[in-house]
């Protein structure tokens, strides 16, 4: 009983430590975004259940694809709110042509420019090297005091960074040789 009381008594202290660390991490992330020369490699928000897309899906028909769930739409809006609250405006918001990615970009940032280099190559590994090279080249061209948001798929993020991002999670990346990208932070941006 005494041990339980001691643990309960320390909970407010532990919660406070967690909050201050989160605030410090948040401040460092904001500072790094303002410094620029980085991309936020964002995996699309939460989708309806499943992996990949149904057979016979069509890129120009959202109804044939796996799409954002209600939770995913809310998550994308929270991500956008995080950026807005900090006065952070991406120089560009690029997206895979898949509806779940375009919708994530539109809900979070009110814009999303389709870019084939971000398209999923799930089940089509031959595109991996070419698309990853295009992303690495574009990353090297981002100017100081500018950052871009790239909304894409898990396979694209893993190919470029070796990291596995959950839906709605992002890797903040900067240009680096020889792989082309180095992960400097991971975040859900309030999502």
Q: What does the secondary structure layout of this molecule look like, with pairings?
A:
Elements: H1 2-35, E1 38-43, H2 70-85, E2 92-95, H3 99-109, E3 113-114, H4 128-140, E4 147-152, H5 154-161, E5 170-174, E6 182-187
How does this model look, in words?
This protein has 191 residues and is an alpha/beta fold. The protein has 2 domains: 1-35; 36-187, Rossmann fold (3-Layer(aba) Sandwich), CATH 3.40.50. 43% of the residues lie in helices and 15% in strands. It is built from 5 helices and 6 strands; from the N terminus they run H-E-H-E-H-E-H-E-H-E-E. Strands 3-2-4-1-5-6 form a 6-stranded mixed sheet. Helix 3 (99-109) links the parallel strand 2 and strand 3. The longest helix is centred in the N-terminal third of the chain and has 34 residues, at 2-35.
């Amino acid at each position: 009983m005494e041990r339980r009381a001691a643990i309960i008594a320390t909970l407010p202290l532990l919660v406070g430590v967690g909050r201050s660390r989160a605030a410090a991490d948040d401040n460092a992330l904001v500072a790094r975004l303002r410094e620029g020369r980085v991309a936020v490699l964002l995996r699309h928000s939460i989708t309806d259940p499943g992996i990949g897309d149904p057979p016979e899906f069509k890129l120009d028909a959202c109804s044939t694809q796996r799409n954002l769930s209600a939770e995913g739409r809310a998550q994308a809006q929270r991500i956008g709110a995080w950026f807005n609250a900090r006065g952070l405006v991406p120089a560009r918001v690029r997206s895979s042509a898949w509806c779940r990615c375009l919708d994530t970009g539109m809900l979070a940032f009110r814009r999303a420019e389709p870019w084939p280099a971000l398209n999923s190559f799930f089940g089509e590994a031959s595109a991996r090297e070419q698309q990853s090279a295009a992303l690495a080249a574009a990353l090297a061209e981002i100017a100081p005091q500018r950052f871009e948001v790239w909304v894409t798929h898990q396979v694209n993020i893993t190919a470029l960074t070796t990291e596995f991002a959950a839906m709605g999670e992002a890797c903040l990346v900067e240009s680096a040789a020889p792989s082309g990208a180095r992960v400097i932070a991971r975040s859900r941006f309030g999502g």
